[in-house]
Each structure stands twice: as structure tokens, then as C-alpha cells.
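Subject: design request, 260 residues
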């Protein structure tokens, strides 16, 4: 059990977690939401600290959150986002899309996608900070990592020669999905009450839409597409939370967390 958690931490972050990894990397899948919560908690702490030290600067808090996320994840998912945008934007058929995504260079579509997603995140986190709802950063991280599990279990790996993410996808099982959803639901209920649970449903719907798009364009999923899905869904959930603004706490049901 702990081996799966250690593998999940090492897979999703650059944190050198001590201990022995799981025998199969797919065993880490149920722990993805928990790692998302830990990552989101660290980012929240960094953003809240900057906001407090700056005397209430939402833009600074958002910048700190973005920088922290990039550093802690090693920009792994952002790399997948750029590859997804280049492939889906420049490829006309399945083979061409996969070839483009395999290229390590970043094209125009990839660069634009990176700028837009980071901008959406910065604007959304700024509003969350201004409305006293920064804790929902953690919720977005939980949902986006849970979406990765859903995609891995649901869709086949499309590169016959294997590649990044192939072992995770090919070893993913329904039990991994069930475990991830249970952990995610428990965390989101604790963070945001009924609104937290509802947000998981919204993230699942977005995940299925993205997955259907991947299925239509390339027939399944790759490691890059898993990372891109995480980034896109995280940005979407942050935007939804930000849109609710000061009213978000009313939907939580449990009331405002002390100091948040």
C-alpha cells in the first residue's frame, strides 16, 4: 500500500519520497488524488504565504502558486500539454498526430496552449485569492489527478511500441478507479462539503469529453495526453471555482475554513 503511494509521489512530482516503490507502477493510481491534495496543499501554503507577506496581493499569490506547481511537478504535465496542442493542432491523421507529439521541440500550437492555460490559471487563482477561497486550489489538483486515473482505466494505450505512460495505462484496472474516486471524494468533502463532491462530478464530465476527443483523434491515450488532460481539467476547475467567487463558500455547506 505504501509502495503505491511512494510511486505516485515520485511519478507526479519531483519530491524524493523515501521508501520502496510498488512492484507495478499502475498500483500507484489509487493514490493519485492524495498526491494531488498534498501538491495542492503545498501550493496553497506558498500562495497564502506570499499573499500574507505582501499585504494582500492576489496576483502575487497566483504567480507563487503557478511557480510552485511548475517546480514541484518538474513541468511534466505542461510538457504533455504542449505536445498535445502541437499534435492535435498540426496533425491531420492519427499517425501524423502521434509523430508530432513524439517530437521534443515545441511548435506554435504548443506555445500558445502553454500561455493560455497558464494565463487562465493565473487569473483564476488571483480571483480565488481575492475572494478568500485559495483552498480550492487543492480541490482542483485533486480532481485533475483523479481524471488521469479515469483516462488511464478507460482508454487504451495507442503506441504499439510503448512509451511514457504505457505501463500505467496497460496495468490500470477498475479497482484502481474505484480507489481513486473514494479517496478523491473523501478529500473533496472535507475541503468543500457538498460543493466539493459536486465539483468531482463536473471534473468527471470534463474528463469524459476530453477522453472522447482523444479517442476520436488517435484512438486512445498516451502519457502526453494524460498530462495534457490533467492541465486542462485543472485550469477548467480553477476557472469554475473562480467564477463562483465570494459565493463559493455558500455552496460548500460546511462554512468557511478558519483563516481562509
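Subject: RE: design request

Done. Sequence follows.
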Amino acid at each position: 500500500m505504501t509502495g503505491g503511494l511512494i510511486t505516485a509521489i515520485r511519478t507526479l512530482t519531483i519530491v524524493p519520497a523515501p521508501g520502496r516503490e510498488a512492484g507495478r507502477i499502475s498500483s500507484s493510481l489509487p493514490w493519485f488524488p492524495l498526491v494531488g491534495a498534498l501538491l495542492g496543499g503545498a501550493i496553497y501554503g506558498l500562495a497564502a504565504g506570499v499573499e500574507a507577506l505582501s499585504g494582500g496581493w492576489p496576483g502575487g499569490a497566483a504567480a507563487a502558486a503557478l511557480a510552485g506547481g511548475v517546480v514541484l511537478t518538474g513541468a511534466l504535465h505542461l510538457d504533455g500539454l504542449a505536445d498535445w496542442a502541437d499534435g492535435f493542432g498540426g496533425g491531420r491523421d492519427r499517425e501524423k498526430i502521434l509523430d508530432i507529439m513524439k517530437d521534443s521541440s515545441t511548435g506554435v500550437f504548443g506555445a500558445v496552449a502553454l500561455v493560455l492555460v497558464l494565463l487562465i490559471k493565473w487569473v483564476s487563482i488571483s480571483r480565488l485569492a481575492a475572494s478568500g477561497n485559495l483552498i480550492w486550489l487543492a480541490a482542483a489538483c485533486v480532481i485533475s489527478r483523479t481524471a488521469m486515473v479515469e483516462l488511464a482505466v478507460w482508454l487504451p494505450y495507442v503506441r504499439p511500441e510503448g512509451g511514457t505512460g504505457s505501463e500505467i495505462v496497460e496495468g490500470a484496472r477498475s479497482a484502481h478507479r474505484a480507489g481513486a474516486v473514494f479517496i478523491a471524494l473523501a478529500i473533496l468533502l472535507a475541503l468543500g462539503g457538498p460543493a466539493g463532491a459536486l465539483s468531482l462530478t463536473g471534473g468527471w464530465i470534463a474528463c469524459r469529453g476530453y477522453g472522447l476527443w482523444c479517442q476520436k483523434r488517435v484512438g486512445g491515450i498516451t502519457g502526453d495526453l494524460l498530462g495534457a488532460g490533467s492541465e486542462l481539467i485543472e485550469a477548467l476547475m480553477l476557472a469554475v471555482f473562480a467564477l463562483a467567487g465570494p459565493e463559493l463558500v455558500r455552496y460548500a455547506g460546511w462554512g468557511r475554513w478558519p483563516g481562509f
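The chain is about 75% helix and 0% strand.
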